[in-house]
Structure formats: structure tokens, C-alpha cells
Amino acid sequence: MYIALDAMGGDNAPTSNVEGAIAFTKETGIGVYLVGDENVLKDLLEKLGGKNLPIEIVHAPEVIGMDEPPSIAVRKKRKSSMYIAAKLVREGKAQAFVSAGNTGAAMAVSKFVVGAAEGIERPGIAVAFPTKKGKPTILIDVGANVDCRPKHLVYFAVMGHTYFKEILKISDNPKIGILSIGEEEGKGNELVKDTYPLLKMTNLNFIGNAEGRDIFTGDFDVIVCDGFVGNVVLKTSESLGTIILEMIKEEVKKSFITKIGAMLMLPALKRFKKKADFAEYGGAPLLGTKGTCIITHGRADARAIKNALKVASQFEETHFNDKLKENIQTLLPDVLLNGKVA
Amino acid sequence: MYIALDAMGGDNAPTSNVEGAIAFTKETGIGVYLVGDENVLKDLLEKLGGKNLPIEIVHAPEVIGMDEPPSIAVRKKRKSSMYIAAKLVREGKAQAFVSAGNTGAAMAVSKFVVGAAEGIERPGIAVAFPTKKGKPTILIDVGANVDCRPKHLVYFAVMGHTYFKEILKISDNPKIGILSIGEEEGKGNELVKDTYPLLKMTNLNFIGNAEGRDIFTGDFDVIVCDGFVGNVVLKTSESLGTIILEMIKEEVKKSFITKIGAMLMLPALKRFKKKADFAEYGGAPLLGTKGTCIITHGRADARAIKNALKVASQFEETHFNDKLKENIQTLLPDVLLNGKVA
């Protein structure tokens, strides 16, 4: 197995990426293609002690900037580390693609360069949210698609189910919900109202509408939504978490006593931050693509890169795409399989 | 001026509601109709020293439960404190309606009993989010409407503009954004893409797409969105705030030192909570209704009720609906006024 790593993507690239790849390869023996500037990567690999490992450098002269629009990554900069890494998967040279670069661009490259798996119209990106119960809740889709149709949300549910069961291995029959406003059946917008009866027809463990507040309670294992809503929720949550801690810090600074208090409390805050850290879970997979695609946070450090590579290898080891294909056949009703629902 | 208060709505009703009404009337001299169980309210009013104030009790034998569907409030329980309070506005006996009861029901009653103002197709509920900059950012709509059309979002923008300028009085030309995914024009779903050019045609201070993270930065004054997305954002944010504090508390409990730290930090945490408290802003107005409708949090205490009554009186004193009507005429392009955009 070989994993193609976009070695130039992310705030801490390429150093953290190379460090992460070395740590991963040392631990697992699995091969990594480091895609990026050959000269830079060669020096780094040597310096960081990764010379005699199954790590191969693949040259890519361009880099996708963190603020460049996704269309550039797909249509123009075809010699970028991101594009070439994804192409290695499309060509069958690598089995998985990992990037900590520009999220929108990485999603677009995953969708259009790696491509959707057979039978999947719209791959969906899944993010693990930390919850009160300690185990994560998966929200899918958080931005790979907008203006979804009911059918897409049902497929997201099967993808989320398969991810929760095969990769996270927390439950064999994860509880599935659909993001809505109001708990009862019949509440929500048109998309939710049309998707609800379809989800009820599946063999999934569908337990009904989830509200915004249910994302963090842990009562649901997988919550499906349109990628527009999911992306707004993801960005709102990340930002609110950061701002709450910043606002508390501001208040702490106002007196000597509270400063001492904060110092004593620091270990608890650190433990909290670790638990709440989205990066801990090893990145967000784009489910339903031909090969495995893992998109990690731009802030990813070496440990997060290593985690992402590990998750990517798990997808391959568990034959995720085969399981997904199987689940689509066994969990979905005929009406969705025979193309009668558009 | 008289304000109709749903005296039985909210977790702390009727005591906090009566206390809040007394405090408000003492301070402003403005009259309040206390709508609810006559016997209970009469005793409470006497006990709490509100006898010789311009507070009148209006009997309502029923109460809308916190979990009852909105349809019950509008169609079935027409003798509820909420329904009768709203009816006082419709009949012109009161100028404003305030409720801390079941939010969905209060929205429905505001829309269908008080009714939309002339020229407004869809009233929108506005919520003030605390931001880093100290001043709030208004999100509208947070749940009164789903499956909005572009025209509705443009009207929400004018409502938000008028609210920010006339009631919050923070800026005369508030910065307006549209909630989307991605910053650049052209990013988002169909609704956003179709609304963007219309917003650009208005005389509003429209500054472009806002992402989920922009809600808390304070860079925007008013952000418009479909009520489905807004409601999910509101509930996600409220719940995440609570859960972060709970998770920190759990971690603090694990050692004696961190417990001491937390005790010393308490004043800072309290100041933070006060700043972040949605209730501080005096409830959320449903903008674009015939009379003023203010919906406050179910947890509202006497001070929050008093604040909500104050905000309601400000709407009347500033002739909010006249200003809104004026702004619609001066800020919107002809294409939106002549009915050419559906």
C-alpha cells in the first residue's frame, strides 16, 4: 500500500508533513509518496532521518495557496503537490490521498481528480464533532455539495453508517439522524421533509430529526445534512469554540487573582482542548470517492498528519469502499437503487 | 402605550414575568397587560407590590406547553395566554406582544395572530450574537421561515438594517452580509447566488458573503440567511457554549489544584457569561409584523422580562414599522418594489 501525501499543503508544511510521514512509516511500514518540491523534500527527509524508509519523493513544482479558489486547483495549477498527489490515486499508483492544504481545493481535487466511486453521485465530507458522551458524532456533508437532493442525503447516511462502523468501530448499528429544526417528523424545510420518509424506508438505524443542539449531546452517531448547512455549522462551531476561550482569557487578564486561578486551572483547560480538538480524530474523510481521500486541518502538526495517514491506511485495510458498496445494496430500499428517485 | 405580556410563558413564569412587568412599569410608567390565569396573577401582583401601577390582568385559562407544536397554539388553544396576548395587539388594544414561552409557538402566533405588516411577505426573527468586538452581530432569519426566496432575504436585510440603526443604535449604516460558504462572490448555494446580485442593487451597505466564522468576529453588523440555516446555527451555538463550559467543569473536577484555580477564576467566568448571554439583549424581535413582537428565552428571569418589555417599548417609541416602511422604499431597487422579483 502507498499513500500519496500532499507534502506542501498546510500551515506547517513541509516540515510537519515530512515528520508525520516518517513517524507513520516507522510505525506501520506502509509506504508514502511525498509530493512536492523535490529539492526541499530531499533535504528535509535526510535531515529528519527518513532516508531508509519506504518514502518516495514525487516532484511537484507548484503549490495551491490557502486562499486560492478551488477551481484553480482543478483547472489551472495541474502541477501542484495537491493535484499530483490526487493523480497518483487516480492512476492506481497510490491507494489514498492525504492533504492538509486549502480545504476547498482539496475537496475539489478529491472529487474531480480522484473521482466518485462507482454508484456514487455525490461524495460527502464527514467530520467528527466531540460530544458530551466522549464519543464523536459524525456530521455529513460539511461542504462538498450544495443544493443536495433527498437521495444524496440518504447516501450520506449510508456513508456515515459505514464510516462509524468500519473505521471508528464504535457501534455496529449507528444511530442516524437528519439535521432539522424541530424534533417531530414533518418539521424542517422541503429537503428534510422529502428525505425523512426515504430514510425511514432504509434498513439504517434512523432515529429521526436532530436539532443543532443535538450535534454535541452524543445522542446521534451520524447526522446528515446538505453541505451548505453542514459547512456553516462546522465553521460556526470551530470559531465559537476559539472565541469563547479568547473571551474568557480577556476576562481573566483583568485581575491578578483570576490570573492565578487560570494558571492553576491550566491542566484542566489543556485536557479540555485535547478532547475538543477536531484534529485529534485524524482529519475528515471525503466518503464515496474511488480511492481514500483524507482532508486534515490546515493547522495540522506532525501528529495530526501521522493520524491522517493512519486513518487513510485503515480505510484501505478495512476495504471501506467494498463495505460501502455492500451496505448500499443491503441497506437501501429498491426505490433508491433502481433510479426511481432522482 | 400598552404592552401585552404572556404572563404564563417561560420556565420561571408567572413569578418572574410579574416581577419583570412591575420593574418595567415602575421605571417607565408604560402600561402592561398581564395575560394568564386571573386568580394566580391577581395574588402575585398583590404579593409583589404591583397593585397601584398601570398593570391590568387579562384572563386566559389555557397555557401553551414548552413542547407543544406551534400549530396547536395557532389553531387549537385559542384561549392560551400567548394567543390572547397576541390578539390584544391585533385588536389594537396593545401595541406590542412579549412572550418567553415556547419559541416556535410564539413565532407562529406572532405571524398568524398579530400578522405581517403591510408590504411584508415574510416577517423574520432577528437574534443578536455576542462578538469579539463587544457589539452584537444580528442574524436574521433564525427560524420564522424555511425555503426562503431571494426576495425574502433582501427584505430581511432591510429589517436587520432598520433594527441595528433604530433600536440598537450602534451604526447608521450597518454592514450587511449574506451567510454563505466561501468568501468570494459566486460561492454558496443557489439561494445565495441569486440573492447576492439583488443585495448589490440595494442602497444597503452590503459587504458580501459572511462565513459561519464571521458571526462572532463582529466584522458584520447584520447577516441574512434562510430561517432553516439560521435556526440550526442558533441552536448549535447555544448548545456548544453550554457544552464547552460543562466539559471544562468536568476536567476541573479531576484535581484539587484545578478546583482551586476555577474558584479563583470564577469572577472572570461570570463576567464572560454575562457578556455571552443571549438573554442580555432583551429577547429576539420578530421583525415585519403589524405590531411589535418580542420573543425571549424560555429561561428568562425577571430582568430579562423587563429588558424585553423595554425593547418592545423602544420599537413603539421609535416608530419602528414606519421607519421600516420608509427604508423599504428608499433602500430597495425598483425591481424588488414593483413585484418583478417573485
Task: Describe this entry's structure for a reader.
Two copies of one chain form a homodimer. By secondary structure, the first copy, chain A, is α/β, with parallel strands linked by helices. Chain A folds into two domains: 2-120 and 288-320, Isopropylmalate Dehydrogenase; 124-235, Isopropylmalate Dehydrogenase. Helix content of chain A is 47%, strand content 15%. Chain A contains twelve helices and eleven strands. Chain A has helices spanning 15-28, 38-47, 70-76, 81-90, 103-114, 150-167, 190-201, 227-252, 256-276, 302-317, 320-331, 334-337, and strands spanning 2-6, 31-36, 55-59, 96-99, 124-129, 137-140, 175-179, 205-210, 222-224, 284-287, 292-295. Chain A has an eleven-stranded mixed sheet with strand order 3-2-1-4-11-10-5-6-9-7-8, sandwiched between helices. In chain A, helix 1 links the parallel strand 1 and strand 2. In chain A, helix 1 (15-28) packs across helix 10, helix 6 packs across helix 7 (190-201) and helix 6 crosses helix 11 (320-331). The longest helix of chain A is centred in the C-terminal third of the chain and has 26 residues, at 227-252. At the A-B interface, helix 8 and helix 9 of A face helix 8 and helix 9 of B.
Regarding CATH, which class of the largest domain in chain A? Alpha Beta
Largest sheet of chain A: 11 strands, mixed
Largest interface: A-B, 65 and 65 residues
Question: How would you sum up the global shape of chain A?
Answer: globular
Q: Name the CATH superfamily classification of the largest domain in chain A.
A: Isopropylmalate Dehydrogenase
Structural class of chain A: alpha/beta
Oligomer: homodimer
Q: Would you identify the regions of chain A where 5 or more consecutive residues have pLDDT less than 50?
A: none
Tally of distinct domains of chain A: 2
